[in-house]
Amino acid sequence: MSKLKTTRELKNLTQEELSEKSKISVRTIQRIEAGTEPKGHTLRALAQALDIQENLLQNNEIVTETRDVKISGEEESVINFAFIKIINLSSILFILLPPLNILVPLLLMFKMKQKNTLARQIISIQILWTVMAPVIFMLGIFLKLGRQFTLVLMILIVLSNLFIILRNAAEIDKRKRLFYKLNFSMI
Known about the structure:
By secondary structure, the chain is mainly alpha-helical. Helices cover 62% and strands 7% of the residues. The protein has helices at residues 3-10, 15-22, 26-34, 40-50, 81-93, 100-111, 117-142, 147-175; strands spanning 66-72, 75-80.
């Protein structure tokens, strides 16, 4: 099944409805669904009409709620974006207890069988935040700017993690990816 057809069906659109929305002829949509790769204006118009990124209609990426992803060796995992969102949001419950904001998502990753790059990225971000937060806090104390500054700094550190978690949750809902991600994985 073509990427365009899969995406169109996920959005509950007929070829005619997509044609009206994108201003691309039904015949062109049929050709693309039969295997022709969209380019240029056609690609942009279809991506905009489907409210997705252009690259999701190219390079063999399939847009689905769950998809098979090769993890390592012969082990395969199915990405369930609802579970990924739960894993991400579970860090909020333990935002004031930094070791648990790593441990709980890690346990959920194994319990929900979501050993994929998205879950690993979520946990890696929490590990990085947990390491950086005390360093920033200690620098704030070292500067000796007063108790009020220290309190404000603590609040800003916690709010930064909350913002990262919520922004990633929104991006998982919208585009099935993370907004804040690392170029490496810590697990």
